[in-house]
């Protein structure tokens, strides 16, 4: 067996690699490149995503595998190909930006005041000299190079999948290649974990909102509704689903609502599937196989009629640029007005936009609270020491070590669960001490934050990076003005 330090580094590398692969940067690159190269990004991603899912899952389980070095090389090749394509894409986008700036300047030349024209011309001339933007023929060459780089990414992914076929990995048979990477197969239920730490106060606050009669008298829209919407938002792994499960369990015992329904909303959901889940949650019986969506909706309305309900819509994904997705969310709401006044919808999502799209007002969009340091330490110890039997003296030493490790995890419940689980599997002082003293946990945290932030936040980071590079072109002259 590998020594504790090597094992710790292996775990850190595997989690970092899995986090990078799971992040949306590859899909973002393809979507941006598709508009320049005129190809169907959705079709290409549909082909690649099952392979990326396999790559991610193998990275998660490889850890101390003898194949780790070969996998590390494939992972490095993939990152290299990605960054090469990203650089070329930047060049092409900068060329297009130059054209846009020139067009805007021509408009200013016609309409703008003389002193503004002079300043803009100065900025434009200075920026163009500094940036050495691409000419038309260079842009054409860059597009060819971009296409070649995308093909290189595909080749690395395909080579990796071919290599996996030769590996004898544990649980490899459980990898479902037919499932897209972002479909997120882990479906949540209304039942909370046996032990929930540090969320009692948050649960009390949400329950108070659900029972608030004054809030019922303030409809979220102009049309009369029997329900109002409360939302919880926060990054993945922050405890949104767990908090909602806690609320659900409380309400099922309390009896304030006639019906308590839980529906997990997948990223690429279908309206009829959501209606079926609602129907089964309302009646506790299998939903009849209606082939017509209108019939399914009418059946659901009958089950909700005259009943005050609580509906939890867990893990809703929403892109505010996707009109079709907004329309589907509105369809989900369409049968719910058959209920009794005072009904509530509790929504969890990574972004506030999803909550607002479903009808929550700003005051009812609740961010996940950060756990107190002592509470977080208690949570981390729960994961690290669960069912672990060690001598009393060793336990004292491990308790001290785990206190220092907790400080590296930035208060993330997801990190506490993952890292605590790794420590629990190796309850020896040397391994835990190497985890405390090494820097691999810092790298792991970087991968976790990159991998599990909401897609829209990733887009925001990409946009900020682009704007930062553009800012460098103009900052000096602008500050002197």
Tell me what you see in this structure.
The chain is α/β, with parallel strands linked by helices. The protein contains 19 helices and 5 strands. Helices cover 64% and strands 6% of the residues. The termini are far apart. The chain has helices at 4-22, 25-37, 41-62, 68-111, 114-131, 136-164, 200-210, 213-216, 240-254, 271-283, 293-304, 323-333, 352-357, 373-385, 392-406, 413-425, 429-437, 440-452, 455-480, and strands at 227-233, 259-264, 309-316, 343-349, 365-367. The chain has a 5-stranded parallel beta sheet. The model is unreliable at 1-16, 18-23, 127-137, 169-185, 217-222 and 443-481 (pLDDT under 50). Helix 2 (25-37) crosses helix 6 (136-164). It folds into 3 domains: 20-183 and 453-480, no CATH class; 200-206 and 238-367, Rossmann fold; 373-438, no CATH class. It comes from Triticum turgidum subsp. durum.
List the helices and strands and how they pair.
Layout: H1 4-22, H2 25-37, H3 41-62, H4 68-111, H5 114-131, H6 136-164, H7 200-210, H8 213-216, E1 227-233, H9 240-254, E2 259-264, H10 271-283, H11 293-304, E3 309-316, H12 323-333, E4 343-349, H13 352-357, E5 365-367, H14 373-385, H15 392-406, H16 413-425, H17 429-437, H18 440-452, H19 455-480
Parallel strand pairs: 1-4, 1-5, 2-3, 3-4
Helix pairs in contact: 1-3, 1-17, 1-18, 2-3, 2-4, 2-6, 3-6, 4-5, 4-6, 5-19, 7-9, 10-11, 14-15, 14-16, 15-17
How much of the polypeptide forms β-strand, as a percent range? 5-15%
Structural class: alpha/beta
Q: Separation of termini?
A: 65 Å
Oligomer designation: single chain
Shape: globular
Strand order in the sheet with the most strands? 2-3-4-1-5
Largest sheet: 5 strands, parallel
- Count of distinct structural domains: 3
Discrete helix count: 19
Low-confidence stretches: 1-16, 18-23, 127-137, 169-185, 217-222, 443-481
Helical content stands at 55-70%
> SSE order, as H and E?
HHHHHHHHEHEHHEHEHEHHHHHH
Radius of gyration: 26 Å
Residue-averaged pLDDT: 71
Number of strands: 5
């Amino acid at each position: 067996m590998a020594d504790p330090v090597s094992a710790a580094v292996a775990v850190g590398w595997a989690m970092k690699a899995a986090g990078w692969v799971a992040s949306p940067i590859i899909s973002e690159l393809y979507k941006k490149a598709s508009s320049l190269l005129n190809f169907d990004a959705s079709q290409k991603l549909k082909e690649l995503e099952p392979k990326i899912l396999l790559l991610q899952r193998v990275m998660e389980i490889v850890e101390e595998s003898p194949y780790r070095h070969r996998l590390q090389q494939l992972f490095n090749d993939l990152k290299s190909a990605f960054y090469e394509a990203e650089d070329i894409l930047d060049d092409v986008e900068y060329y297009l930006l130059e054209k846009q700036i020139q067009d805007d300047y021509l408009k200013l030349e016609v309409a703008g005041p003389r002193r503004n024209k002079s300043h803009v011309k100065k900025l434009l001339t200075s920026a163009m000299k500094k940036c050495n933007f691409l000419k038309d023929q260079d842009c054409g060459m860059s597009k060819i190079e971009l296409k070649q780089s995308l093909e290189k990414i595909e080749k690395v992914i395909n080579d990796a999948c071919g290599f996996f076929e030769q590996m004898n990995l544990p649980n490899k048979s459980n990898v479902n290649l037919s499932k897209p990477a972002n479909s997120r197969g882990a479906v949540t239920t209304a039942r909370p974990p046996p032990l929930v730490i540090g969320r009692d106060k948050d649960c009390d606050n949400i329950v108070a909102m659900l029972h608030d009669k004054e809030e019922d008298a303030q409809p979220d829209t102009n049309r009369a509704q029997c329900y109002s919407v409360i939302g919880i938002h926060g990054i993945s792994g922050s405890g949104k689903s767990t908090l909602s499960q806690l609320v659900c369990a409380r309400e099922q015992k309390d009896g304030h609502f006639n019906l308590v329904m839980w529906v997990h909303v997948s990223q690429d959901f279908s309206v009829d599937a959501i209606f079926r889940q609602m129907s089964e949650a309302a009646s506790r019986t299998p939903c009849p196989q209606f082939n017509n969506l209108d019939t399914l909706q009418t059946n659901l309305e009958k089950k909700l009629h005259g009943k005050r309900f609580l509906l939890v819509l867990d893990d809703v994904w929403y892109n505010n640029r996707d009109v079709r997705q907004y329309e589907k969310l509105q369809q989900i709401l369409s049968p719910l007005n058959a209920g009794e006044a005072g009904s509530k919808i509790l929504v969890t999502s990574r972004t506030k936009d999803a909550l607002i799209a479903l009808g929550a007002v700003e005051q009812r969009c609740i961010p996940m609270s950060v756990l107190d340091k002592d509470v977080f330490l208690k949570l981390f110890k729960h994961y690290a020491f669960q069912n672990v039997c060690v001598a009393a003296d060793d336990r004292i030493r491990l308790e001290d070590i785990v206190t220092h490790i907790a400080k590296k995890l930035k208060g993330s419940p997801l990190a506490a669960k993952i890292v605590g689980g790794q420590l629990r599997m190796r309850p020896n002082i040397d391994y835990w001490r190497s985890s405390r003293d090494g820097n691999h946990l810092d790298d792991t945290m970087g991968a976790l934050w990159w991998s599990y932030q909401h897609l829209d936040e990733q887009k925001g980071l990409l946009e900020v990076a682009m704007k930062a590079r553009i800012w460098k072109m103009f900052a000096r002259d602008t500050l002197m003005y």
